[in-house]
Specification:
The protein is built from 13 helices and 6 strands. It is mostly helical. It has 3 domains: 64 residues, no CATH class; 105 residues; 90 residues, Serine Threonine Protein Phosphatase 5, Tetratricopeptide repeat, CATH 1.25.40. The strands form 3 sheets. A two-stranded antiparallel ribbon has the order 1-2. Strand 1 and strand 2 form a beta hairpin. Helix 4 crosses helix 5 and helix 5 runs antiparallel to helix 6. The termini are far apart. The N terminus is likely disordered.
């Protein structure tokens, strides 16, 4: 169905028979771009609409896929942009906050006698694996998606005294992904790609990597670019890597450099990638984060 305006009044037109009417309820449930006056017209027009529908669905998918994701929340203590690397941030199950390692390090330096206190809520650090588990369980009861995703990781790797159990890991990751958790999307993509506890499923792998990328995962975004490059879709690979670079993913800078060296990207593409990466570093940089990285190389944030 199409619409046109006549004296500011929108008139609906059935895509099959051309009948006009304002009470048209039957819409293509895939592309949502055409409507019909009844179910019979919808069914009759299906074969004519199929190719246009597939094209429209693909366009809508790409529009969502390549849209710049919303940035992570800032660190709740220093209010600076959060580093994308997990080594540059830490989740605190006591209060459910994610804090940058710079602020964790600064709190340790400031409170040498109480370095085990949470920098945000000042709760003492857990002194046993049992206490770690209990704190995560409390957060999960509050529908904390991060705790669910992390707890799934504990089961997948057999951490904190838990037995390795991929079934329970999958259950928790699916609960977390229903709440829109980026890490859970990524974990599911990795698991389906590697066949860890499940059959290898490339379609599900790509599906979850796309959800992770749209949620802001630069690692998933980079991996999607690699997949596109391997299938010869250099333009799509470049799009993914540019978004990953803008999110601070250094490896994507190197990938764009190789595209440029092989003639699949322009000099401006590579120059823009370098500038975007430097802009991200400037945005997340702080003295205490530099000091934290110098103190412990495992806390690198870029």
């Amino acid at each position: 169905m199409s619409t046109h305006n006549d004296d500011d009044n929108s008139i609906s037109i059935c895509a099959n028979c051309g009948k006009e009417g304002s009470d048209v309820a039957n819409t293509c449930n895939k592309c949502n771009s055409v409507k019909y006056c009844n179910a019979a017209c919808k069914k009759k027009h299906r074969h004519k609409h199929k190719k246009e529908c597939e094209r429209k669905v693909a366009e809508l998918h790409d529009e969502a896929l390549f849209k710049q994701p919303q940035p992570d929340e800032d660190c709740p203590i220093c209010f600076l942009c959060m580093p994308h690397l997990h080594s540059g941030r830490v989740y605190k199950a006591c209060c459910g906050k994610i804090i940058c390692q710079g602020c964790v390090y600064a709190a340790d330096v400031r409170d040498k006698k109480s370095a085990s206190l949470c920098p945000f809520c000042r709760t003492p650090a857990p002194d046993s694996q049992k206490e770690v588990i209990e704190r995560y369980k409390v957060r999960m009861e509050l529908n904390d998606a991060i705790s669910m995703s992390d707890f799934g990781g504990f089961y997948a790797q057999g951490l904190h005294g838990l037995p390795q159990n991929y079934a329970k890991a999958f259950e928790l990751w699916h609960r977390a992904e229903e709440l829109g958790n980026m890490a859970a999307y990524n974990n599911l993509g990795v698991t389906y790609g590697a066949g860890r506890g499940v059959e290898v499923d490339e379609k599900k792998e790509k599906h979850y990597f796309e959800l992770a990328a749209m949620s802001g995962s630069v690692m998933a975004r980079h991996n999607l670019g690699v997949d596109e490059m391997q299938t010869g879709n250099m333009d799509r690979a470049l799009k993914h890597w540019i978004i990953a670079v803008e999110g601070g993913f250094k490896r994507s800078v190197g990938s764009i450099k190789r595209l440029y060296s092989n003639g699949h990207a322009t000099k401006d593409d590579y120059a823009n990638a370098l500038q975007a990466y430097q802009a991200h570093l400037n945005e997340i940089k702080s003295l205490q984060r530099d000091e934290a990285a110098a103190y412990n190389a495992d806390w690198n944030y870029y």
